[in-house]
UniProtKB/TrEMBL annotation:
The name this protein goes by in its record: Spondin-1
Domain of life: Eukaryota
This protein's UniProt keywords: Disulfide bond, Repeat, Signal
CDD domains, A to Z: Reeler
InterPro entries in UniProt: Reeler_dom, Reeler_sf, Spondin/Thrombospondin_T1, Spondin_N, Spondin_N_sf
Domain Reelin: 4-174
Amino acid sequence: MGNLKILMWLGLVSAALACELNPGPGVGSKSPGDNHYRLIVNGEVERYAPDQRYVVTLVGSRTHDVVQQFAGFKIILDPLNPDTRRAPSKQGQFQLFADTLTKFDEECTNSVVEADDLPKTEVQVMWKAPPAGSGCVLLKAMVYENASRWFAEDGQLTKRICEDTSLSIPDCCACDDAKYRMVFEGLWSPQTHPKNFPTQALWLTHFSDVIGATHPKNFTFWGEGQLASDGFRSLAEWGSVGLMERELRQHGGLLRSIVKAQGLWHPRVNSNTSAAFTVDKKRHYLSLASMFGPSPDWVVGVSGLDLCQKDCSWVESKIIDLYPYDAGTDNGVSYMSPNSETVPRERMYRITPMFPEDPRAPFYDPDSKTMAPMARLYLTREKLISKSCDEETLLALVAEEEENTQTVDKPEVDVCRLSASPNIGSSIGRSVQSEIENDLPIDLQSASQ
């Protein structure tokens, strides 16, 4: 029994040493300060929403003359109270992007390190925040330039981020739930957007399947200034919703409805598709997106549309024009641009007649301040579902999936034709296939047409 206690104690000491922020043996003493390196959470977030995902970026100074580079790094999650144990249930957990820059540190819980010793200017990891009631968390980093220059914990290499407790206060006073019908209408055509319209690949023009959810205020999966997850990248570049849907389902009871509608393929690009969804007083925001292609990584949709009104009623109907957004995952500037991954990913932005300022861009038109919408969204409230304001509903534990049942013919793609045509390139091939995966357990509610 005594030997077992000694082994357990040695194991705890070993784990504690493995989590120390240093490059390991054979290096000089830590350099003071942060040398302008810093940790950034989703831009400059100071408070986290429980169970929400955030992008953590470790980056150095960037000027016209100097871009700082480093060979190694380590990012860890620590409790604010040193007596509290380190655990994903207390400080959340890291998740890796699909790149080759990062890997988990096998010797330290909640720790990410470099995957190689090549020079880096920036690294990113995803952090899933801990559940409600977890309090404050410390994100700490070590940056290794060489054996005599490394920095850790000082200055902006430690970031304290605390739970946003205000999010638990309902911001909607409606008692009843509301069921809506969403109709997505495609408007994009050679007549509405004639510049460089991909007429040579007309058979591939389409809007992908629509994917989205109804959710609380503190949830988001796409929008202006955000960084795309792997699932959103898959949607924006390939028109594939499977991974994005799985990412949404991981949030479970945080969502009220998962919204899905089939895509619109040539020659039905200018027709419509629909789905139903439900909102309640806690989850009254709608976000959804659809890729249009062929394109590098362009989407249309809405993000965080509030359907609850200040007078405690639900919006009866709404019509929203949809404009293009760049997902920040591909460098292409035209419909037919070949694949060119953006590393690291950039923040999503609205495409306008003035930006990006590139004559090759199909929407660039310095003589115009307006743009015709790519698509249009029609929202209609179908019914109210009577609920008591103090009633606890079991639906809070389950996300519904509500999708349309109409059949949309999608073209069969001639792979040989793609590979034999040098003008089409891989950017079209990636926008050809749209997948629907229903492999996760979820309550199904099919919306009748």
